[in-house]
Known about the structure:
Blueprint: H1 2-17, H2 20-23, E1 51-56, H3 58-67, E2 89-98, E3 101-122, E4 125-151, E5 156-170, E6 177-181, E7 194-195, E8 199-200, E9 203-209, E10 213-229, E11 232-247, E12 250-258, E13 263-271, E14 276-281, E15 286-294
Amino acid sequence: MKKTVLFFIAICLFSFAANGQFFDLSDGDEATGEPLISKGGHNILPEKGDIGLAIDAIPFTDFIGNLVKINSGAAFSSMLHIQPPEGGMIICLKYFTGNKTALRAKFRIAYDASTEKLAVQNDDDPLETVYDTEISSDLNFDIGIGLEKRRGHTRLQGLYGLEGILSVTKGGEATPNMRYKYANEFSSANTAPTTSRVGRTSSRPIYQKIAPQYGIGGRGFVGIEYYFTPKIAIGGEIAVRLEIARRGASKVKTESWNFTDGAVEKDVTKDRTPSGSDISLDNEIDTHLYLIVCF
């Protein structure tokens, strides 16, 4: 883990140092001219020393869409949802080291968990129905540190930059991590209890953990922001990233009845078949629509 973090920092520094002018935090030859002022006398654009907080605009567009019943009363879902499909809430913090330069830290987390109860016959009382429980979950997490440059003198600002990315993926929508709880227990009198999925069985899973993936890489982005009021803007970005990923081992824990010991036996099996490393360039463009407030 220590080596991974050091490698992550090294990628950030290398990507910034690749262009000395880009690495300049003081704007370099900063544009001259009068700042853009609102009718109330406030600066419209962010300035050196400002902090910006950007959050996903998607929840707001979905909320407004539901209010006006765009889908004729059905739940509204924006067509601008984040790509790639793992989605998640993105929060970005920016510190403006100049009027046209900002350091930024970005966080993305996507977590999903669901519980399903499945009816099954009670082995102790066949006339009674009891329930097995299946819990599925998956987690995707990104953290990025980068440098942003800006251009423009009007309310519409262009931006571009580089980020170093550290990512963690545990499970997915198609292959989530699974945990099982059973109503019918193993015992000396019931060595093959009834389960909801497969009926009577002498062995069954307790949990299944998909091989986790840890990634490190870089991300180049371009975007625009439109300041419709002083220091508040709606913005969008598109980006492509290069990532080196390392996959771990998947795990399955099962339980069965041990006739020799007369007790429940639990085994953990690790599958290292999917483990390994690869280098990938996103085959989809990463898009992000957000609302930013500077103060």
